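User: Teach me something about this protein's shape.
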Amino acid sequence: MRTPGGRSSGECLTRRTALHCLALSSMAGLLGEGRRAFATEADGARPREGDRLAAEDAEGNPKALKLQDVKIGDKPLGAFPFNPADGIKREGSRLNRIILVRFDSRDLTPDQLARSVDGVFAFSGVCPHRGCDVTEWNDKDRMILCYCHLSQFDPRDQGAVFAGPAPRPLPILPLKSEQGEIVIAGEFSSEPGGAKAID
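Assistant: First, the predicted structure itself:
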């Protein structure tokens, strides 16, 4: 059967179907780009209240760190925040790297206890001097140590500079606990990173 334009109804149906498929394909592509852009933005966004923390070297789906995972007196434990609702780990920016250290709660003052959760403190894991990763621990003085230029920070004194060239304290991140999981309770006390820090 021919249509007024001289084409068979099968041809029209095929062309109509092809155009419909092309339109759907274009829309799917746009939605996919939107999802990728959202994921990129979400994984680079700064830590937010309610985020959980996952160990920085953990693979696969992020698993929330618990208070028991941070041991008293151990070197800093590196972590990245993630949104528990969608599982997106905010590791798109290294300035989101967080370190956790723990003290015996009995050794802390009421003011120090208020800035920690059961003796666990959280700080930016990027040195404010030249942006190196902070990974070490001075066990003798119980200070966080950056090996790049030997800056040291006092976790019990809001990350204050104890020694070395760092120009300011390590930004501190407030915490709380929910069912034993470590939960972010607010924003960094100041912008993380340092001179020439790489995002």
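Now, about its shape. The two ends are 65 Å apart (CA to CA). The chain is about 20% helix and 25% strand. If you'd like, I can walk through any region in more detail.
User: That's plenty for now, thanks!
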